[in-house]
Each structure stands twice: as C-alpha cells, then as structure tokens.
Amino acid sequence: MVEDKVIIVTGGGSGIGRATCDTLARNGAKVIVADLDAASAHVAAEAITAEGGVATAVKVDVADEASVEAMVAFAVATYGKLDGAVNNAGIEMSNKPVHELSAEEWRRVIDVDLSGVFFCVKHEVREMKKNGGAIVNTSSGAGLRGQINAVDYVAAKHGVQGITKAVATEVGAFGIRINSVNPGLIMTPMVRDRLMHDPVFDKALDGLRQRHHIGRFGEVQEVANAIMWLLSGQSSFVTGAPLLVDGGYCV
Ligand code: NAI
C-alpha cells in the first residue's frame, strides 16, 4: 500500500503519530519521524530500525515556519523525494470557557494546531508538485462539531478542515490529494493529561464514552490504519474529505 513511499509524520514520537510511523514502516514506507520532543522521535525511529524498517528522526517545531521548511528539506535530502505527509502534531485545548481564555492561551493553540498545519502543507505541496503525493491532516471530531471549554481547539480543528478543502482545490491538478482524519477520543498521553486534571474526571469520562456509539474509546492503531489508507492508492479518488474514525461520536 505504501511500499517505498517517503512519508513525514509530525508528532511522530507519541500517541497517534507513533502508531502511524510504526504502521507505515511495517508496510514498507521510509518514515521521517518528526517531533518537537527530539528524544521521543529518536526512540520511535530506533524502534522501527530495530524491527528491520526504515526511519529517521528529526526535530521540528511545527509552529515555526523555518523549522518546518528545514524538516521537508531534510526528508528530501535523506531519501531523495517526498511522497506523503501526516500533519499530526498537536496540543490540547486550554480547557477554559471563552470568557476566561487569554490572548496568549488562544495563540498557543492556534500557533501549533492551525498555523502548524498551514506551514507543513505549504512546504510539502511545494515539494510534491514535482511528483504528486498524498497529505493527511489530523483534525478531530472537534473539527466538525462544537465542544465545551475548547474554543481554541475547536476553532483550530475547524480551520484544519478549511485548509484541507481549500488546498484540495489547488493541488489536484498536480496529482496531490489532501484529506483529514477525524478521530474520536483516543487515550493517548495528550488526552490522559487533560482528563487527569479534570476535577470531575470519572463523570467526564463516562459522559464522553457514551457519546461514542460503539461504546468505547478508540485505539491509536485504528486511526493509524485509516491514515495509511488515505496515503495509499486505495483512496485514489478521495480528496478534500474528512474521514471520521470516531466510533460514532459525530453522528
Ligand atoms: P500526543 O500528545 O500523544 O502526541 C502529540 C505529539 O505532538 C507529541 O509527541 C508532541 O511532542 C508533538 N508536538 C506537540 N507540539 C509540537 C510542535 N509544536 N511541533 C512538533 N511536534 C509537536 O497526542 P495525540 O493524541 O497522539 O495527538 C495527535 C493528534 O491527534 C493531535 O493533532 C490531536 O489534536 C489529534 N487528536 C487526538 C485525539 C485523541 O483523543 N487523542 C482526538 C482527536 C484528534
């Protein structure tokens, strides 16, 4: 499905990104594991290499355009081309109601979760215009519906849907497809951190679980499988689309 494809995964050192790197590598891709946390990116790349796969780690701050440009250049310098990208790095909402959210808190989330995706898409498309490619942006159920105490995150993730649709209209002619994956709740370190600090932890968890009609939270592997499909030729007529992997959360 993705054999010999060179694919960047941002946020590849943890959670959904890490599972995506492992899945792509197991299926023959050459993976650039990109993360702000350089140590976790190295651990992920070394684990792949130890299993006989091909992966290289690189540090990136997706909120910094120069850093993103350098990441794309590094991928091309390392493996000679760029076929795919998973713009997945992200941070959680500030977890405050709108009237208490400061401009700094707003900007922190927008810089990473929205501008970060813009910078990645911009530099990936520049490279992919040469030979075509496929891009997947990790959005969220919060990219399609509202969520309490999350105006920063919901705005950013809706913006990711906007980027995905707008860019799809520009790049199809170059053989580039761009889609989003929209996960429901997956118990990654990011989510666990937030819920652990929630004063009504058990109540919040039960309510959230009930909103997932399959009756449980998702697994990172279930999201990684969907991302790989969107990167592969199996989805060759799919572009500009959100793919919900959310156990029915958005129904
Ligand atoms: P995670 O916290 O396990 O992984 C996120 C990774 O992104 C970390 O390795 C972190 O170091 C990296 N990162 C953070 N800021 C960065 C930056 N500025 N530059 C580069 N890397 C940076 O979280 P998880 O859950 O795997 O999240 C991945 C994506 O999935 C995020 O975009 C998140 O919004 C999205 N998502 C997650 C859901 C969940 O329930 N876990 C649900 C819906 C969407």
> Which structural class do you get from the secondary structure elements?
alpha/beta
The total strand number stands at 7
**Rg measurement, Å:** 17 Å
What is the average of the pLDDT values?
96
Instruction: Give the fraction of residues assigned to helices.
Output: 40-55%
The low-confidence parts are: none
Order of strands in the sheet with most strands: 3-2-1-4-5-6-7
| Unique bound compounds | 1,4-dihydronicotinamide adenine dinucleotide
The helix/strand series, from N terminus to C terminus, equals EHEHEHEHEHEHHHE
Account of the 3D structure:
The protein is an alpha/beta fold and 251 residues long. The chain is 47% helix and 16% strand. The protein is built from eight helices and seven strands. The protein has helices at residues 15-26, 38-50, 65-79, 103-128, 151-171, 189-196, 201-211, 220-231; strands spanning 6-10, 30-35, 54-59, 84-87, 133-138, 176-183, 242-245. Strands 3-2-1-4-5-6-7 form a seven-stranded parallel beta sheet, with helices on both faces. β1 (6-10), α1 (15-26) and β2 form a beta-alpha-beta unit. The longest helix is centred in the middle third of the chain and has 26 residues, at 103-128. The protein is globular, with a radius of gyration of 17 Å. The two termini are 29 Å apart. The relative contact order is 0.15. The mean pLDDT is 96. It binds 1,4-dihydronicotinamide adenine dinucleotide. 1,4-dihydronicotinamide adenine dinucleotide is lined by residues 10-11, 13-17, 35-37, 40, 60-63, 88-91, 112, 116, 138, 140, 183, 185-186, 188-191.
